[in-house]
Amino acid sequence: SGGSGFGIMAVLAGIHRGYVTREEGLARMERIVSFLETADRFHGAYPHWWYGDTGRVKPFGQKDNGGDLVETAFIMQALLAVHQYYAGGNPQEKALAARIDKLWRKVDWNFYRQGDQNVLYWHWSPEYGWEMDFPVHGYNECLIMYILAAASPTHGVPAAVYHEGWAQNGAIVDPHKVENIELHLRYQGTEAGPLFWAQYSFLGLDPIGLKDEYCANYFDEMRNLTLVNRAYCVRNPKHYKGFGPDCWGLTASYSVNGYAAHAPNERDDQGVISPTAALSSIVYTPEQSLQVMRHLYEMGDKVFGPYGFYDAFSETDNWYPQRYLAIDQGPIAVMLENYRSGLLWKLFMSHPDVQKGLKELGFSTVSK
Q: Please, are residues 144 and 344 in contact by the beta-carbon 8 Å criterion?
């Protein structure tokens, strides 16, 4: 469902660029929303996976067969951007925006506090309840979930949920250096996380000049996280083939050993480069990201197919799977468009509920 959200935002970029007509784009969005209106929801939240032909939940794991609030946040981020794209349009477009608003209002963010605790829980199952037991603390890819939870006009959570749950009463602040680059936040379970942590929440949420009481500038922090990732790959402590200034980027993707969250440390580095890592970072590191893009093009059809660059590869293991992954492919198109025009940022940030949520949590925009 989260990958679908990223794809929805990519379709908006496609309409904007003329790859599909506005009429074709609207027809696709109507089909998507029709599916979402009848697909399984759990207190308004979508599951991680569905069966595409029925809309019924497909368990992501035995106990993960219910609502997934993080994936729901990713798809709602997209739908709010679509809402803004069509809200001022013709009658058919306005009707779609109204249907999206109903989906948005039905997500019961408050329920996922598990009894009014000041933290959001990732999962709930109608069969297993809260047994997944995953309270979400920062920093990771889930910032957008807390912002949307505060933004909801129907089931909004109080600001204390953000400050006590996500920020853990300020413990999220942890100034430190990695690869001699300054980071200000505490990254869950590691000194510096995989690059999807700098991307998923910021496909719609504009990081430029964004600050709250825990981070003086989210753009600068995410740029530094990207530079840490690049610097680690350039240093290449495990001596993998191909790593360097023109081939870097560690994030969650397929790998030689199955799906893995690659990160800039020797424990989580398997010698796998994921093109989305550098390419979706173009908003933070345009010159360095374009250097990778040009190099990947030169590698030819080993890494490039009909839908763009394949998900991942390893020169060390001579491993070049011709596979795509929605959560990696979607952000490339979205961030390329944000780099070129800021389209998805402008749409999402213009939604009045989003503005309300940011204000509720103490966010502001500083001079750029």
A: no
In angstroms, the Cα distances linking 321 to 99, 256, 271 are 39, 9, 14
CB 274 within 8 A of CB 260: no
pLDDT tens digits, 117-157: 999 999 999 999 999 999 999 999 999 999 999 999 999 99
Measured between alpha carbons, how far is 131 from 186 in angstroms, rounded to an integer? 26
For residue 232, give the nearest of 187, 206, 271 by alpha carbon: 271
- Tokens at 238, concatenated: 């495990």
In whole angstroms, what is the distance from residue 330 CA to residue 3 CA? 7
Axis-axis angle for helices 69-86, 2-17 (nearest 10): 20
* Contact (Cβ atoms closer than 8 angstroms) between residue 134 and residue 140: no
Six-digit token pair at 54? 């029925």
The pair phi, psi for residue 145, each rounded to 5°, is -65, -45
Answer whether 263's CB lies under 8 Å from 250's CB: yes
Using one digit for the tens of pLDDT, what is the confidence trace for 184-235? 999 998 999 999 999 999 999 999 999 999 999 999 999 999 999 999 999 9
